[in-house]
Amino acid sequence: MTTTAPRDEQLWSRCDGCASLLYRKRLRRNLDVCPECGAHARLDAPDRVAQLADPDSFTPLPDRPVRVDPIDFVDTLPYPNRLGAARTGTGMHEAVLCGTARIGGQPIALAVMDFRFLGGSLGCAVGELITATAERALADEVPLVLVTASGGARMQEGALSLMQMATVSQAIAGLREAGLLTVSVITDPTYGGVAASFATNTDVVLAESGARMGFAGPRVIRQVTGATLPEGFQTAEFLLRHGQVDMVVPRHALRGRLTALLAAAQAGRRAARRPALPRQASASRPATGAVAGPPTAGPERDAWATVRAARHPGRPTTLDYLETAFDGFVELHGDRLGADCPAIVGGVARLGGRPVMVIGHQKGHTTAELVAHNFGMASPAGHRKALRLMRLAARLGLPVVTLVDTPGADPGMSAERQGQAAAIAENILALTVLPTPVIAVITGEGGSGGALALAVADRVLMLENAVYSVISPEGCAAILWSDSSAAPQAARALRLTAADLCRLGVVDEMVPEPRPAAHDDPAGAAELLGRAVAANLAPLLDVPTATLVRRRRHRFRRYGAAQGMGVHQ
Ligand SMILES: [Zn+2]
């Protein structure tokens, strides 16, 4: 926002976005977001802290002595003169404001960068202050929240400023090891060394609406490549589309989103810390049938009729279940490698008050929705997003619930180029040893490797009208019958219904659906699903992690031919 004239400075501002003349007090009340066009004006660090932290909760960290001008740098002005001017101009000692605070009642350590101070550049003092904040988070066992605004490393401090990227990252690694949540909030602009370290190597990356982030700035890219950059390049929406950030959040919603994430992490930590009770019945039961006794199976249904029910366009999707069976879903996006696959959705949510990480395939009800979500066929980026969320859940002590509904993994050329097979393989591997409880529910189609990439779990549940198979009935018929119209016979031969798979031990429990099927009563189906997941999850929560993983591996060791598993007619 540009002030109109010195005399009116206190009263009026002109919006940089739409040029509206705005009453300053009104603009401040609106968190410096233009009420006309929604442009987010840059905030200085004290204003940002005031907006984010609970009132009167911020306590600055004590300043540490840091060497000023470590390499005696002089350009047209000696560096100490530039520092002095920045201090006078901003009233700040350095380009970051650090302390402890509360957000939504939850204690955190907080570092907020200030772009006014030498472009928010990362020098030794800034690196030291942010590292000290991370160390304070570790000592207090609280999450770390970083608000970034920076042009990059501070060249006046030479290679020593470059080293700050590693110094701060190392402190973040310490928080990861301790299972403490780290969140960065990217504000405009975040570039260079800050973008390439602690702005993006945190657990969750939020981009404020209007923020731009990148490694190289637009001017550098144009100079080096001669390319014309497209509209919206490096904006928050661009970053979301390309898998770089978990979400784009308008300023008004930042506190709310942070509060939800902090609450989930806090609950996960409490759960993870709870001492295991070795004498408790649940801890000594075998992995199979731990909850419901022997696998349950309903009356026989024709396999082909079940396939058709599983594919019914009205069947509840993962997002439907997240709306109904779970509460407070905060969706996390992106694989951090270049894409956000719409066929897999995931994020933190609550089930019966307990935070969990939910990851599932997303289809849709209309043709447009189905196309938008690639019919629930995940790309390698989708599998990598799922993997990132599984590992995040394990670090934070959150159980994982997966909802499987896919005809199969994306079989396209681009998926092959990006390593579809390896992406699936990596998820299977990661799930076998994931140190947190995992419940998988086959809710619709459990198609082949794409399904298993989310279904290596402690308990595998399956909805009554879901199917789970190594290949689609059509695919099987085309290969073995040389006739895809033999799909109904193939469906019967493949033993892909919940009843069959309970008998085979592939599935532990069948989740009943309202009559005649879930699409006739989605709310009823959601209630049954929520109840089944909660009942299966509860006994796993007290099992020590090592035992949990050992049992999971045992569960998937029992399918060999030597185990004498056979189809009972
Ligand atoms: Zn405006």
Walkthrough of the structure:
The protein has about 575 residues and is α/β, with parallel strands linked by helices. Helices cover about 40% and strands about 20% of the residues. It has 22 helices and 19 strands. The strands form three sheets. Strands 4, 5, 6, 7, 8, 9, 10 and 11 form an eight-stranded mixed beta sheet that branches. Strands 12, 13, 14, 15, 16, 17, 18 and 19 form an eight-stranded mixed beta sheet that branches. A three-stranded antiparallel beta sheet has the order 1-2-3. Strand 16, helix 17 and strand 17 (about 460-465) form a beta-alpha-beta unit. The longest helix has 23 residues, at about 250-275. The protein is elongated, with a radius of gyration of 27 Å. It binds zinc ion.
Helical residue percent band? 25-40%
Shape verdict: elongated
Percentage of residues in DSSP E strands: 15-25%
> What average pLDDT do the residues reach?
91
Q: What's the total number of strands?
A: 19
Oligomer: single chain
Largest sheet: 8 strands, mixed
Heteromolecules bound: zinc ion
Q: Number of helix segments?
A: 22
Ranges where pLDDT stays below 50 over 5 or more residues in a row are 276-297, 564-569
What Rg, in angstroms, do the CA atoms define?
A: 27 Å
Class inferred from helices and paired strands: alpha/beta
Distance between the termini: 75 Å
